[in-house]
Amino acid sequence: MIVSKLRRKMSLWRPPPDLALSDWADAYRRLSAESSSEAGRWRTSRAPFQRGIMDAMSDPMVPEVVVMKSAQVGWTEMLNNCVGYYIHQDPSPMLLLQPTLEMAQTWSKDRLAPMLRDTPSLRGLVKDARSRDSSTTILHKQFAGGHITMAGANSPASLASRPIRIVMCDEVDRFPASAGAEGDPVSLARKRTTTFHNRKLLIGSTPTIKYRSRIESAFLSSDQRYYRMPCPHCSDMIKFEWANVQWPDGEPEKASYWCQSCGSEITDRDKFDMLKLGEWVASNPSSRIAGFHIWEAYSPWATFGEMALNFMEAKKLPETLQTWINTALGQTWDDGGESIGDDELISRCEVYNADAPDGVLCITAGVDVQDDRLELEFVGWGRDRESWSLDYVVLHGDPAATYVWEQLDDQLARAFTLDDGGMLRVASACIDTGGHHTQEVYMFCKSRYRRRVYAIKGVGGAGRPLVGRPSRSNTAKVHLFPVGVDTAKDMVYSRLRIQEYGPGYCHFPVGRDKCYFEQMTSEKAVSKWIKGIATRAWVKKSASRRNEALDCRVYALAAFDILNANMDVLERKANSLYNQHSVSTIVPDIDQGEAVAPSRRDNKAKSGSRKKSGFVGGWK
């Protein structure tokens, strides 16, 4: 104990190494085959923008480094280099914080262990977990002069023990608002460094939602460095911006960059020479925090054509566009509004040509359970998540009574008429268990599991998956699916804002009463401050407003997600059946395990009369 304390005190006065982190990586680091497509010696020259980021990680004059990034920029390997550098050159107590404890374990096994094995200078420095006197574990590694602890931001105990000199926080936008009841995980980790004069905090992440992104907030407090490179035509120092990536109509694979200074074309072949001559330039030099923004266009592993192709696919739906903006541009997503009015939806009602209009390929249902009734919505789904509200039904009666569930069973067995005279039945349904009649829901769903009637339970909180893994740890041993209701409402409202026919558009029939639309638009997203962190939450616009229609749509969306229908296959089957004129009634073949029942659709015949979806027009 005395020796360890003496070592720690002596480390406070140890002079920093002369070797910069990027030079160490070039000299010593070896990439492992499990974690890299280019196994072997590390070369910073492969992606020159990495040099400035890594050198800031080892610069004793820089107390904090912030990296707001996209995918494909080598962030994880830069973080690995930082760990290897401090183990080999400047042994120190280190903490690597991941969003969850499980992710920390995965990083230790899949990233750290291969690096320690394949980098000769690190081999043997970290104590072997199998040695008799070692306290080394998957989440705690010891080496002469220091140690590294890997922890989850969701684990308060991991953030409240020994002092740490180097703290690395990975994917902070996925951290919980609070580590248990202790407060913000990043703030707790920062407090662990206060006893070190040469402390360092590294924060990196792909951003998420504007005004609620930890990494965006940290970056705006930094010196805000951008990588600028000389244009090969005019020599002006420029930074890449997505607005300047252009391509011929209908040919995104031919995309290139057009210089914002001289208007000349810059190709992928020009990019490598530009990167070699680039430099990081701070736009807020008064800050002591080194902040870097880097995105996919700078990556040697991505081309402008690939980015354009991915964008064209992602722009079809708000949620996929958000993911693309976060992970490709390294920017936050601004959804352009938190609410929508019922009058706007009423004005869009249209006359259907059948119970299930042209475009519907499968049907799901969402059921909300109240104390004196059941409410359910039938939703038809087409290509690219285009949807049609087919019917909304209220079944009055006490859900404790058998006859109410018999009525629901009849409703879920309904056949909806197609415009060619055929019929289409419900492929999947979700029923909420969160009310006062949980056991009745369990029993109803348990006996109808093969009909894809599922029990679900809503789970609040930002960042949760739309549908999680089902569990059977309930009294009825029924498959119970957790549904991320905040995520689902984000999806529903973003699609309700789409104004033109096409991907994600929501259709409603003429004759639907105003109460339905008031319920559908009854909530709004607000920011709530929890332990100093802005957290997104959905709340009613007023306490007196009902929201059953919104809940039913959320559950129908969850049913569609669980169904995981292959819409390409359904459309091919539907068109084949229609062309053969051999279909009258189409039902799901449950015994054979088919995903959903096919329906006849010829979208191409209608596509010429439809406008293209324009909700992402501002992006291209």
Q: Could you give the topology of this structure?
A:
Blueprint lengths: L1 H10 L9 H8 L1 E2 L8 E2 L7 H10 L5 E6 L5 H14 L4 E6 L2 H18 L21 E4 L2 E7 L13 E5 L14 H7 L8 E6 L8 H7 L4 E6 L6 E2 L6 E2 L9 E3 L6 E2 L1 H9 L2 E4 L7 E5 L9 H11 L3 H12 L12 H5 L15 E8 L3 E9 L5 E10 L5 H11 L2 E3 L5 E10 L5 H9 L6 E7 L20 E5 H12 L9 E2 L6 H7 L2 E8 L2 E8 L7 H16 L3 H14 L22 H5 L13
Helix pairs in contact: 3-4, 9-10, 14-16, 15-16
Features:
Nucleotidyltransferase, domain 5, Rossmann fold, 10-stranded mixed beta sheet, 620 residues, disordered C terminus
Shape descriptor: globular
Mean pLDDT: 86
Just name the CATH architecture of the largest domain. 3-Layer(aba) Sandwich
Largest sheet: 10 strands, mixed
How far is the first residue's CA from the last residue's CA?
A: 62 Å
* Low-pLDDT sequence parts: 580-620
CATH superfamily name of the largest domain? P-loop containing nucleotide triphosphate hydrolases
| Alpha plus pi helix count | 18
Content of β-strand: 15-25%
Briefly, what CATH class of the largest domain? Answer: Alpha Beta
Structural class: alpha/beta
Describe this structure in words.
- Helices cover 30% and strands 21% of the residues.
- The protein is of the alpha/beta class.
- It contains 18 helices and 25 strands.
- Strands 3, 4, 5, 6, 7, 8, 9, 10, 14 and 15 form a ten-stranded mixed beta sheet that branches. Strands 16, 17, 18, 19, 20, 21, 22 and 23 form an eight-stranded mixed beta sheet that branches. A three-stranded antiparallel beta sheet has the order 11-12-13.
- It has two domains: 2-329, Rossmann fold, CATH 3.40.50; 342-619, Nucleotidyltransferase, domain 5 (2-Layer Sandwich), CATH 3.30.420.
- The longest helix is centred in the N-terminal third of the chain and has 18 residues, at 101-118.
- The relative contact order is 0.09.
